[in-house]
Amino acid sequence: WIEPGVQKMNGYTALWYARSRHGTSDYDRMKRQRDVQAAVLEQFQPSVVLLRFQSVAEAGSRIVKTDISQRMLGQFVELAGKARNHELNRVELVPPLVNVVYPDFADIHAIVQENTVVSEGN
What are the residue ranges spanned by the domains of the chain? Predict the structure, then answer.
């Protein structure tokens, strides 16, 4: 049990909190996952990742598989640094916006398109 309000969590507790299904809906769980992700991203510092790259890479390799080459990682760190200066636009494809039982994919594509901004040169 986690008390309501702002909490400082270690990785184990944050993961348990984000994944817990006890007594709540899938939509509640999805919101908790977004909250944990937002908290992690808020603390993310590209310079720290570069300084601790080896330990971050080792931890990540146990949970993430990718075909992105190591030489591309620097570009992702640079992109992450730029992204910190932009507002995040989030679209939740959940009821009542989207019928999850009988989804209208044309509507979903239109919603995503309306909420996607292409930034030229940034």
Answer: 1-43, 46-85, 89-122
